[in-house]
Amino acid sequence: MDSEVPxxxxxxxxxxxxxxxxxxxxxKMHLVQSAGWEVEEIVTRQAVDDLLRLTEDARRRVEAGQxxxxxxxxxxxxxxxxxxxxxxxxWQWRIRRHFRPAVFARLSPALLGRYAEAMGLTVDQxxxxx
Length: 130
Prior knowledge:
Radius of gyration: 20 Å
Largest sheet: 2 strands, antiparallel
Strand content: 5-15%
Strand order of the largest sheet: 1-2
CATH architecture of the largest domain: Orthogonal Bundle
Order of helices and strands: EEHHHHHHH
Number of strands: 2
Number of domains: 2
CATH topology of the largest domain: 434 Repressor (Amino-terminal Domain)
Shape: elongated
Structural class: mainly alpha
């Protein structure tokens, strides 16, 4: 079973192994270690590159006054609107509305605190796109 689990290595795992499920000779699923495989690494790198692009695009839009720092930080911490909504308990439509700089500037300290906590930031950090 272990010999059938890819062990090509994946630099995105930084030398660590991860647990994956594989079907054993007994027909049951077992947890085994894997060093990863090339296809997984390619897909992971593409996803990370896409997130970095979204973050940089949002930073530029913040500087141009087209979006709020909320959108920048959401991408920077690798979240999307549904995940931020789930983590913060704030409806998705409200999050989209809070991307508007004028609306974001008027948010209450309590609401800013919910966003900051969900993203592991301070309120001060949340209010700046740095």
